[in-house]
Amino acid sequence: MENPIRLYATSTARLLGEEIARQLGYPLHQTHVEKFSDDELFVRFNESVRGQVVILIGKIHMPYENFFELLMTVDAARRSSAKEVILVIPYLPHSRQERRDGQRTAISSRIVADMIQFMGADRIVTLDLHTNAIEGFYKIPVDPLSSLRLFLDHIKQSNSDNLCLCSPDFGGIKRVKQYKKKLDADLVVMNKERLKANAVSSMEIIGEVSNKNVIIIDDLVDTAGTLCKAADVLMEHGARSVKAYCTHGILSGRALENLNQSKMEKLFISNSVIEHISHPKIEVLSCAGILATALLNVISNKSLSEI
After folding, report:
1. d(C-alpha 207, C-alpha 189), whole Å
2. Per-residue model confidence as pLDDT tens digits over 147-175
3. Of the listed 83, 192, 266, 281, which one is catalytic?
4. 20 to 30 Å CA-CA from 254: which of 170, 197, 200, 301?
5. Beta-ladder partners of 123
6. What is the reported pTM?
7. Could you tell me the CA-to-CA distances from 228 to 82, 129, 221 in Å, in that order?
8. Would you say 173 and 167 are in contact if contact means Cβ atoms under 8 Å apart?
9. Dihedrals phi, psi of 14, to nearest 5 degrees
């Protein structure tokens, strides 16, 4: 009997798609994607998807053409009579703009949600939402997975003593507490006052870090300015070492320069955005296993709560 499930990946997610496909034991099918001379995109399925469950793995970080390719592929699947379209989007862009910041502003994460749903997606599997409130923008099922298992195993393998977990802000305490339940470690919180996006005016530690090997846990790292400043403050207060585990490594602007100048020992990120990077302080861990396990559970109608 023909497998009713077809696995695809957008142009920027081919490597991740191949890794997930290997773990699932499914072939990764190809779409035809072409860019015309005026930079317009063209997307076509190379075979029939009529009556099939289409699983589309997409990385839709900047530039916006990555997001538009995903939308076009979903629309093509719908117009080709696919039975269901399941999106695997490890990192949802605009996730930090889930509410109005003052007057006369947009809620761009709602715009992203509306566009994905309008094109006809039936379900989204994603990784570490910046805030759970984003789920409320969707009328379709959204499965926000946690990178806990990925990072927790890596932390345990490091065999570091005197561990201290650090939340970079009060909003991340709940995430860090999940790690604390599994590790013999203290917990501290950074209290910061932000001037504007990617700029912090002051920072203080709530808790004791003297002689501790500190691990900062966060959902994403962008310019790394705040993260590096936190690492330097922790070291100034007597920390033995500082490492960070951030699910989504966006690493824009001066991120690499900030890391070079920082006292941070190591930054671990998943491959939700960047596949490979050559930098002495950055290591990329694959999230393919978590996503593949989630897809198996979705396919077989099993719970995702333990993933």
Report:
1. 7
2. 999 999 999 998 889 999 999 989 899 99
3. 192
4. 170
5. 86
6. 0.93
7. 46, 22, 10
8. yes
9. -65, -45
